Amino acid sequence: MSLSNKRVVIIGGTSGIGLATAHAAIDAGAEVVVASSRQASVDAALGGLPAETTGHTLDVLDTEAVAAFFEKAGSFDHLVYTAGESLSLMPVDGMDMDKARAFFEVRFFGALNVVSVAARYIRPSGSITLTSGSARTRPGAGWSVASSLCGATTSLAGALAVELAPTRVNVVEPGIVRSPLWNGMSAEDQQAMYDQQAAALPIGRVGEVHDVAQAFLYAMTQSFMTGASIPVDGGALLA
Ligand SMILES: NC(=O)c1ccc[n+]([C@@H]2O[C@H](COP(=O)([O-])OP(=O)(O)OC[C@H]3O[C@@H](n4cnc5c(N)ncnc54)[C@H](OP(=O)(O)O)[C@@H]3O)[C@@H](O)[C@H]2O)c1
What we know:
By secondary structure, the chain is an alpha/beta fold. 42% of the residues lie in helices and 19% in strands.
């Protein structure tokens, strides 16, 4: 899978799945731009990436900043959107509606905000890849909002694939992946959660960020695929 002479912009590319995708895209020959909201994350990511990689602070909810970012970035080939925050379970009984709405901000409206500007800078034969999750198809109790968010994001990718054609638009649906997303939990609780999830999966382990990065690479380089959702979840659908 070659990305030689391609320019890839990864929003959320300073950590976890996005950062692993940056490394994979660079290994495949791409020039990569990463962006996220905190300067410390950008600095830390650039510290481990090749010198020619550029990084910028960008809050996906800041419409003016998003417009300025893409105007400055100029034309490019592939957009990857992995910006997100950790999930918290919300039982529907007595649900806090403000919290429920806020859940959609970065992952859904952030993606929409970014795409609404970025699309015009994407070169012919380019692509957009969004991030959803296996909660779309395998929600547990307390996952109603998280599952709805994933469904909305997957549907968004399909609709964008129609509206923005011939730009290809796809979505990756990860299952549980070992990443800094879960750093709000203690190390012990994280490991217990990974172990519990792994035991229920046909593959017998949780995902690693490089597993998911390969799916983003595939979505960028598979020139006959659009409107597709790619599950990378260790077989969660069958569990
Ligand atoms: N890890 C999993 O188990 C898993 C499973 C299913 C789906 N997913 C989804 O996959 C995506 C990536 O997850 P991950 O595990 O790679 O998480 P992560 O390591 O926490 O990375 C999230 C990235 O999003 C950036 N970000 C957060 N808020 C932002 C904002 N307002 N504007 C711009 N950037 C922002 C973060 O950087 P800053 O802090 O600098 O902003 C960071 O670079 C998320 O949407 C997540 O919901 C993850």
